[in-house]
Design a protein that fits this description.
Blueprint (H helix, E strand, L loop, with lengths): L2 H23 L6 H8 L3 H29 L1 H20 L4 H18 L1 H11 L2 H32 L2 H22 L15 H9 L2 H30 L4 H26 L4 H20 L5 H13 L4 H13 L4 H30 L3 H21 L18
Helix pairs in contact: 1-6, 1-7, 1-8, 2-3, 3-4, 3-5, 3-15, 4-5, 4-8, 5-6, 6-7, 6-14, 6-15, 7-11, 7-14, 10-11, 10-12, 10-15, 10-16, 11-13, 11-14, 12-13, 12-14, 12-16, 15-16
């Protein structure tokens, strides 16, 4: 297989795997109303399972990144797709909050293998540096195609069938991820950087002293907080406000469709302007859009307009964060470093999912939840812009770090 054909195969496999993995993950909130009614659970019970998923994803991402960097992406990705199917099967047979939490843990571990970090690593290794940022944006955009297609299809199935029947649809999608993961793992056969003379321990020490990496990782918290709050609670918020349940699925689909444009644009812009500034602006703009939506009574029109605006800002962080890590340290240990940065993202996800459910159960409103998310988002965005810039020059594996920031 020629180099061009191998690159295309890797990118297609990574794109399909990311599309299905994230499409299912971002549509799980549509199960909240039927599952809680059928199993006599509270919103907090369901969102606790989502929170467990996000914590498991965050805590397992760095170890799985280390495994992938040492033993290969293909092994981690294929096993992850199989684990995803196991998590879906546990959820389909759930009888209470505990089994939902077990399902969440399995899916979280699977996402460490099949979602952004390993996919972005495969993509970064497959394309030259001159095209890296744009191609990271292209692959990131495919994750939104999953939301755009999976969410409305799932809602149609939920309206006409028992929610467990709809889970079969997810099992089929998880099965399709297995061959896609195998193809994406072809990045293992590409030549590794020959100048990578430092060990993993040494590059982790560099990262621990690198101000740009530390600020980026801390600000990443707000990404998980805001996005998981919306994917988990927006359908329930609309249902609580008396709007058509299909509107929640339509909103998620619009977010997915617009994010195709947003992620590609973020990748394209990241190749031309400072990534840390673009990243901070994205967090601040998200907070502004959230405020405009939640201060007004929701309607079908305002919800779709909100979804379109959020979609433009949704997963543009993926090419920007991945590109920043590649600029700082190269691609040799990229999966490990992305995994470390991702830990704070998932603690934000935990707070967005479970904290939002607790606030709703206690206060009967989501007002305090979105206000907290907006405040943290503005602070994180400003910190990213002011303090997340590069040192005197880009730090690369095998080159001495001139400044820790």
């Amino acid at each position: 297989m020629g180099d061009a054909a191998r690159t295309r195969t890797i990118l297609i496999g990574a794109s399909v795997m990311l599309c299905l993995s994230m499409g299912m993950r971002q549509s799980l909130s549509l199960f909240l109303p039927p599952v809680t009614r059928d199993l006599a659970l509270t919103a907090a019970d369901f969102t606790f399972a989502v929170a467990v998923q996000n914590i498991a994803w965050g805590l397992s991402q760095a170890p799985i990144g280390m495994i992938a960097d040492k033993f290969g992406l293909r092994v981690a990705m294929v096993l992850g797709a199989i684990t995803y199917a196991a998590g879906i099967a546990v959820m389909a047979t759930a009888s209470g909050a505990m089994s939902l939490a077990v399902s969440g843990g399995l899916i979280g571990i699977a996402l460490s293998c099949t979602a952004s970090s390993l996919c972005m690593t495969a993509c970064a290794r497959a394309v030259p540096e001159s095209r890296r940022s744009t191609m990271l944006g292209v692959v990131a955009a495919t994750s939104s195609l999953g939301m755009m297609l999976v969410a409305p299809t799932l809602q149609v199935l939920l309206e006409g069938n028992d929610w467990r029947i709809a889970m079969i649809f997810f099992l089929v999608l998880a099965a399709v991820m297995v061959p896609a993961a195998f193809l994406a793992g072809g990045a293992d056969k590409l030549p590794r950087p020959t100048r990578a003379t430092v060990t993993m321990r040494e590059v982790l020490g560099q990262a621990a002293r690198h101000r740009g990496f530390l600020v980026m990782s801390a600000a990443y918290f707000v990404c998980g907080l805001q996005l998981v709050f919306l994917t988990t609670h927006l359908p329930n918020y609309l249902d609580f406000c008396g709007l058509d349940p299909m509107l929640g699925a339509q909103a998620l689909a619009v977010i997915g469709g617009m994010n195709v444009i947003g992620s590609y644009s973020a990748g394209w812009l990241g190749g031309r302007f400072p990534k840390h500034i673009l990243l901070g602006m994205l967090y601040v703009l998200r907070s502004c859009v959230l405020t405009l939506y939640f201060v007004m009574p929701p309607s079908p029109t305002s919800t779709i307009m909100f979804a379109a605006a959020m979609g433009m800002l949704w997963l543009g962080v993926m090419p920007l964060v991945s590109g920043l890590v590649a600029e700082m340290f190269g691609t040799r240990y990229m999966a490990t470093l992305l995994g470390l940065a991702f830990v704070t993202h998932q603690f934000g996800s935990f707070l967005g999912a479970y904290g939002g459910g607790l606030i709703f159960d206690l206060l009967g409103s989501y007002d305090r939840a979105w206000q907290i998310g907006v405040s943290i988002g503005v602070m994180a965005g400003c910190a990213q812009i002011l303090f997340g810039g590069p040192p005197q020059r880009r730090d690369r594996i095998g080159a001495p770090v001139l400044s820790a920031g």
